[in-house]
Every structure is written in C-alpha cells, then in structure tokens.
Design brief:
With 157 residues, this protein is α/β, with parallel strands linked by helices. 42% of the residues lie in helices and 13% in strands. Strands 2-1-3-4 form a 4-stranded parallel beta sheet, with helices on both faces. The chain starts with a strand and ends with a helix. The relative contact order is 0.20. It binds 4-nitrophenyl phosphate.
Length: 157
C-alpha cells in the first residue's frame, strides 16, 4: 500500500480556524490513508488548546477538538505534508514566503478556493469578534472539507 496523504491546515494562531479545519477534515477521511494536522504562522499561542469558542462550536456539531495543541508552522512541514491549506491571503503570503521551491509553493492552497475557485475568498479571522463569527467559519470549513474529502478520495483511489 502506498504512503499516506498528509494534510496540514494553517492559520495565524492555530487556535481558532485551523483547529476546526483539522477536526472537520479528520472526521471526513479514512485515517488509514490520511493524516491531518494544523499549525499557525505566528507561534504566539504555542502549546495552547484551541480557543473556547472553537471548542464550543465543534462540540455543538459533535466534534471534540479540545485535545489539540497549537504549534508553529515549520519549514520541514513542506517536506512532510502534501497539501497546506491556508485560511486567508495573509496566511498565504506568510506560508508561501517559507517555501523553498516552486513545487513546495504549489502545495499551498487557500481553502475556500476548493469551494469557490477563482474567487479568492478568505475564511475571516474570528478572534476579536463574537460567537456569530465562529458559526460562520464553522459553516465555511464544513463545506470546504466536504469538497476536499470528495476530491482527494477520487484523486487517490
Ligand atoms: P486563528 O485566530 O489564526 O484562526 O487561530 C487568531 C488567534 C489569535 C490571534 C489572531 C488570530 N491573536 O492575535 O492572538
């Protein structure tokens, strides 16, 4: 059997958006064929559990993300992961700046491009907003991970 496909979800702090994206993505893929992880470009919340509001919206939808721990994106992630899904343009700029080859840069994809190709949409940073923002990003990420799961399974099988 071939090696697993490795997917990394990336945002700024790795406490709000990418932990939700990780939990959702993992729940939709066969763990024998895929690994899913997440990281932040800043490292400012290193070692912390996801934001309470992300844990709450996940729980409300039957997903437990409370055991995740924030970590900073590493250059070696480009070697270890096949796809690096970023949440917004600022993440895209920060992550692609760390890529050392064109091939690595091609691994970086804005996650909503999978749902709305060519529209260049962002999953907005919900950190300074209220719970509505978390409902909103949950919906976006649920949709995006549905599309990715479908595409990726077709590509690999
Ligand atoms: P995330 O959200 O990138 O979705 O994890 C943020 C978390 C923390 C901060 C900003 C965004 N912060 O400025 O501390």
């Amino acid at each position: 059997m071939s090696e697993k496909t490795n997917i990394l979800m990336v945002c700024l702090g790795n406490i709000c958006r990418s932990p939700l994206a990780e939990g959702l993505m993992r729940s939709k893929l066969n763990f024998t064929k895929f690994t899913v992880d997440s990281a932040g470009t800043s490292g400012g919340h290193k070692g912390q559990a996801p934001d309470k509001r992300s844990i709450a919206i996940a729980n409300k939808n039957g997903l437990d993300i409370s055991n995740q721990k924030s970590r900073k994106l590493l250059e070696e992630d480009f070697k270890n992961f096949d796809f690096l899904y970023v949440m917004d343009q600022s993440n895209y700029n920060d992550v692609t700046a760390l890529a050392s080859t064109e091939e690595e840069k091609k691994k970086v994809i804005k996650i909503l491009d999978e749902v709305f190709p060519g529209e260049n949409l962002d999953v907005p940073d919900p950190y300074y907003g209220g719970s509505q923002g978390f409902e909103n990003i949950y919906r976006m990420l649920d949709r995006a991970t549905d599309v990715i799961a479908q595409k990726i399974d077709n590509r690999i099988e």
